[in-house]
Amino acid sequence: MTHHDETERRPEIQVNCCFCGKDLTDALSQERGYGPICAGKYGMLFDTTQPPAEDLADRMSAAAEATSPERRHVADNARNCYASDKKLAAKRLAWLLSFVTSDDETDAQLRALEGLGFQAMAGLIAFERGSVAVRQASKRKCQVSVIDTPYGRQMAVKTPCKPKADGCERERELPGRRWDRDLRVVRYPLTSWDQVAEWVLTYFPMSELPERPTAEIEAAKAKEEAKAKVEAAKAEEPEVVRLSLLSRRVAIESPYNYDFVEAVKALPNRVWMCLECGKAAKPKCEDHPKGRHVWTVPLDRADEVKALVKKHYPDALHRCTRQLVEALNAEGKKVKAAEASVAPVMELPGGTLYPFQSAGVRYLEVSDGRAIIADEQGLGKTVQAIAYAKRNVNLAGGDMVLYVVPSNVKFNWASELFHWLAGTPLNDTKLLRRIRREGCVRINDVEVSVLSGRPKKDGTLPKKSGSPVAQHVIVNYDILSAWKELLKAAGYSLVVADEAHNLKNQKAARSKAFEEIVEKTDKLVFLTGTPVLNRPKDLWNLLRLLDPETWGNFFKFHKRYTNAHHNGYGWDFSGAANTSELHSRLDGHQWIRRLKANVLKDLPSKQRTVVSLDISDQDRRAYERVERECAKMLPSAGGRVTALKDMDSDERAVVLAQITRLRVAAGEAKVNAVCDWVEDLVESVGKVVVFAHHKSVVSALTERFNALKIDGSVPAGQRAEVVAEFQDNPEAKVIVCSIQAASIGITLTAAHHVVLAERVWRAKDHDQAEDRVHRIGQDQQVTAWYLDVPDTFDDAMRAINDWKARVADEIVDGANGDPAGGALQAAVDYFNDKKN
After folding, report:
1. Sign of torsion, CA 321 322 328 329?
2. 688-709, pLDDT tens digit by residue?
3. Rounded CA gap, 665 and 774, in Å?
4. For residues 828 and 636, is the Cβ–Cβ distance under 8 A?
5. Which of these, 524, 533, 615, 736, has the minimum number of CB atoms within 10 Å of its CB?
6. Which residues of the chain have pLDDT under 70?
7. What is the rounded CA–CA span in Å between residue 627 and residue 135?
């Protein structure tokens, strides 16, 4: 296509800007003779002579340059491809025309092309321009829907691009507008439906609106009107501040007052909480986003809160004080309800709880199942946890309870559970043997599972181990990490940690595993007679697990209560500070602790408690090796030990010799377990008297504790000195005595706990040992602990002791107190039971 001659380029005709109408005749380009660009607009100028169509792209390129590099690129491309592909060039030009010119201006340009004889090109551009218009219109549709949100049903609008002209300003003025960053939409309340719909159809006319939810809109409007009335009524009320109790904390409600709020936020351990559910909110409660939220502080900060009220709201001080006193009185009645002997007395299939034990259960209930039972050893923390589980966990509905305990009392816990919940005899020998062999046992709808060993990586359970899915699951601290994943997957409604001071070290593997297991558990109960082993720092991890909102800050706790300081090499947390304050914050709010002196009226003067210990695999293998050797020496027939009546005197002598050997093996096998248990007892109660029978056992216990000792090797003249040392020296915590050597003639009333590590044949000898402590001069209740290991010869010794307790020794033993008959029969029964 050729260009016009120079003479044809400049006819005498007026030229105007196609955008603003400005007369540009004198400003025509002299270089090429085509219309220049109006300086105030980013568009093209066409005079009536209109240049050839092939140069249209040149002028459009100049017009597009000021608006977008992308458009300049498209215009250049259209010019370059015009000669070879007019249709593609038309597409490019049509796209540009939709941006840089209005519809009327584009029509004028196309008519000019047709007038110059470029009908084909004009038709192509018009066609492509129509296609572009359709595509652009499809991209200019709003997506409008009704969605569910935490604030109720709302209208959601998603726009494809910014609206033209004043659309943005008008959109910002729509009532209730909120940007939802998660959904990437703008939300509006249903009450704004009509205004939003009008805006959408004005600026995005191609949009389609969903059906108008008239009923929902009317309901939302009615709710808004009611809310407006309430707000108007509140606005007329004078500014007030209110104090109440929320989750055993002081809740502070007040109108916004910057100075007052900042003063409250400066109080230690303040927490922003939801008034609806009492949970911490950050910044709003997920369950009640529209509920009221308040600042709360611990109860021990109540006086500081009142001082703030007096400073900022002096007129409200009297009313706030009255509100707080009423709330505290109501809470106090709940917490201290057990101290009054009120019916009903708590009863379980295994017996009736003491009044103070019922009090402990009620305390756990008013604490929502998150507290520490810190009673002195011997007051029955175990039965309190069991009673709470029975009353507050839906065991019949499939909920489960996990008990995390020291390894040496796993089977004692199983025995206690069956005794109190199923009514079985306490420490029943056959039941304990069955639990040990089967792992999981069910009696009278009570299911107890004892975990042992370590599961394989594929989830296979060890032999003789119970399942982590049962009503009551018992696991010891030592294997907690190995069972962590299976226990987390099981999910427990209540977790009870016995001797919870084993979790004092936050960094220990057992503590980390325990924290993961209880992460989603609502109820968490700690049992320990020694919550503070050495220093306040021992408490922090337990408190953090119970109430992370109050106690979760490590440095705040340690700076306040351990006198934490940097010594130049690192932080030292070994001290103690503000201990009275810590006690007042905990007592009745985070834990309950009773000493025997506090509940003497509820207790007999002397208690006997049998504890079933578990021993290590190594100790059990050593014992069982001796047991097998003894069994081979016994007279037998048909795979069973010969009946006692069929034995002659020589055979009876053999049996007696093997009994003696087996008793020594049983005593030595449990030395380690006894020492671990006694260490915990000493930490809790102080001085302890330990009785044993065999010389090897007495020596091993004495060496382990570096303790005082009274046995046959101590001359009678020195025994008085040993007794005086134990009675008068507060550092002498343990004395180990032989039952025969120290059962008469000495007084050890400095202790009120007696441990019998071994049994002898005569129950009367046990009474004599207990009376070394339970005698004139003793001002506390005495507890005697009998430490037995199930599935060892301890079972036979306990059987003969129970038998003799029912019948006078003089009648059973004869005039000389000969125990041989009873011992032989107990041994025969023991070995025959083991063969079953």
Report:
1. positive
2. 999 998 989 999 999 888 888 8
3. 30
4. no
5. 533
6. 1-140, 162-165, 231-240, 245-248, 275-279, 282-283, 287-288, 290, 300, 316-345, 531-534, 584, 588-589, 597, 600-604, 636-646, 743, 776, 804-824, 827, 834-836
7. 93
Strands annotated E in 208-357: 242-246, 249-253, 271-274, 293-298, 347-348, 351-352
Q: 295 and 434: one domain?
A: no
For β-strands 640-641 and 636-637, DSSP reports them as: antiparallel
Rounded to whole angstroms, the maximal C-alpha distance in the chain is 155
Across 375-458, the runs of DSSP E, i.e. the strands, are: 401-405, 440-443, 446-450
- Look at residue 836 in the predicted model and tell me its pLDDT: 58
d(C-alpha 220, C-alpha 36), whole Å:
59
DSSP code string of 722-747? HHHHHHH-TT--EEEEEHHHHSSS--
Is the separation of the CB atoms in 611 and 753 below 8 Å? Answer: no
Cβ-based burial of 219 (10 A; exposed 0-12, middle 13-18, buried ≥19): middle
Label residue 324 left, alpha or beta by phi (over 0 means left) and psi (-120 to 50 means alpha).
alpha
Backbone phi and psi for residue 539, each to the nearest 5 degrees, phi listed first: -85, -25
Beta strands in 613-740 (DSSP E): 636-637, 640-641, 688-692, 708-710, 734-738
User: In degrees to the nearest 10, what's the CA dihedral of 94, 96, 100, 101?
Assistant: -10
Say whether both 640 and 742 belong to one domain: yes
First to last CA, the chain: 115
Element (H, E) at 495: strand 494-498
SS3 content of the chain, % helix, strand, coil (to 5): 50, 15, 35
Q: Which of 178, 202, 235 is the last residue of a domain?
A: 235
Which pLDDT score is estimated for 384? 92
Neighbouring-strand partners of residue 495:
402, 524
Confirm if 163 and 204 have CB atoms less than 8 A apart. Answer: yes
Estimate the crossing angle of helix 56-65 against helix 86-100, to 10 degrees: 40
**Which tokens go with 726?**
């134990």
Distance CA 385, CA 213 (A): 54
* pTM, to two decimals: 0.55
C-alpha–C-alpha distance, residues 756 and 766, integer Å: 8
Q: Are 404 and 366 in a shared domain?
A: yes
Tokens of 113: 């092309």
pLDDT digits (tens, 9 = 90+) for 578-588: 777 777 677 76
For residue 641, list its beta bridge partners.
Answer: 636
Q: Is 560 within a domain? A: no
563: tokens are 């006198």
